Amino acid sequence: MLKTDFIIVGSPVYFGSATLELMALLDRAGYVAGANGKLFSRKIGGPISVTRRAGQNFTYAQLLFWYMINDMVVLGSTYWNVATACDPGDVLEDEEALGTIDRFAENLA
Q: Could you tell me the sign of the dihedral formed by the alpha carbons of 100, 101, 104, 109, in that order?
């Protein structure tokens, strides 16, 4: 994570929040980075969340908080980086989400 130009994290919504595995990684990485002089400070990135029905905004915010507490630069887009999908490939039907992520990627570039 220290050698990357960008840190982008994404999660499906499981029981209204990000996956436990992702949060375990972020919590540990954030703790180590913070204890060693804010190692992620001013790194660029942003979160993405995907849901079947609901919870994407909470999950997006949950991930966004991690960026904020690590003194990172979060780039925006035309909307929040959230999508709706149930089965593999369904996200390709969420044209607004794909456009939002495309703009987010352009802003990163």
A: negative
Residue 1 in domain = no
pTM attached to this predicted model: 0.91
* CB hemisphere CA count around 10 (13 angstroms): 12
Cα–Cα distance, 42 to 48 (Å, whole number) = 19
Task: Compute the distance between CA of residue 106 and CA of residue 52 in angstroms, rounded to an integer.
Answer: 26
- pLDDT digits 0-9 by tens, 39-88: 999 999 999 999 998 999 999 999 999 999 999 999 999 999 999 999 99
Whether residue 52 is contained in a domain is answered as yes
Any idea what the CATH number is for the domain that residue 28 is in?
3.40.50.360
- Do the beta carbons of residue 103 and residue 77 sit within 8 Å? yes
Q: Which of 98, 30, 101 is nearest to 62 (CA)?
A: 30
How far is 15 from 17, CA to CA, in rounded Å?
6
Establish if 24 belongs to a structural domain: yes
